[in-house]
């Protein structure tokens, strides 16, 4: 199978990409810039290819979608790339004037999803920290109000909602979200209780087709929490799609227009 894994230069993304490659899949990895791409190619020669694009830039995200589409229709896409600025005292704006956590964690996977031919499987990496997210779509992408932890939790809640919304709009695609857990990576820190191999397992199972019995529109987690309320409301999910379309200039195609 042909599989794309974003944010695959280290941590969970790297382990997801290499585990899928070791299982015999053709894995297209992704790096933020050329130096990281060169390092990844040397570190993991089993990867089929490495694409480059900074997801904090809409221009580069669109270019990444075009480069990925040149490979054809993927069997699976794992939207793993993400940033955390939980300790930051103030927001950081991207070149597009948007708050970085939202743009990288939410708007970039939305934009890639909308621009690329739909794969058979979509895997969005969320977190049980989504439980502390706050739905306020009127301020999506805005740097104010700013609280680093809330921004991260909210981004992961929006990722969950994105996975559920795509599952509804594209019934022919298995679209699910995962919770890797608290993983000992550069983002998670050395005190985290589980390693990257364990954190990568949900993404590997879903992308590799070993969990198709779960269906679509699921949040795959071992930590008990499941979303409820507004996050599961189709109308609110569609408000998120509308906000992402407005901010990105890209509209998610309806199922009737999908070319498979």
In words, what does this structure look like?
With 260 residues, this protein is α/β, with parallel strands linked by helices. Helices cover 38% and strands 12% of the residues. The chain is built from seven helices and seven strands; from the N terminus they run βαβαβαβαβαβαβα. A seven-stranded parallel beta sheet has the order 3-2-1-4-5-6-7, with helices on both faces. Helix 5 links the parallel strand 5 and strand 6. Helix 3 packs parallel to helix 4 and helix 4 packs across helix 7. The protein starts with a strand and ends in a 12-residue tail after the last helix. It comes from Catellatospora bangladeshensis. Keywords: Oxidoreductase. This is Short-chain dehydrogenase. GO terms for molecular function: oxidoreductase activity. Pfam families: adh_short.
Summarize the structure.
With 260 residues, the chain is an alpha/beta fold. The chain has helices at residues 11-22, 34-43, 58-69, 100-115, 148-169, 196-208, 234-248, and strands at residues 2-5, 26-31, 49-52, 76-79, 121-125, 174-178, 219-220.
| N- to C-terminal distance | 16 Å
Strand order of the largest sheet: 3-2-1-4-5-6-7
Query: Nearest-angstrom radius of gyration?
Result: 17 Å
Order of helices and strands: EHEHEHEHEHEHEH
Question: Can you tell me the overall shape?
Answer: globular
Largest sheet: 7 strands, parallel
- Provide the structure class: alpha/beta
How big a fraction of the residues is strand?
5-15%
User: For the residues shown, what is the average pLDDT?
Assistant: 94
Helix content: 25-40%
Count of DSSP H/I helices: 7
Protein name: Short-chain dehydrogenase
GO molecular function: oxidoreductase activity
Pfam families: adh_short
Keywords: Oxidoreductase
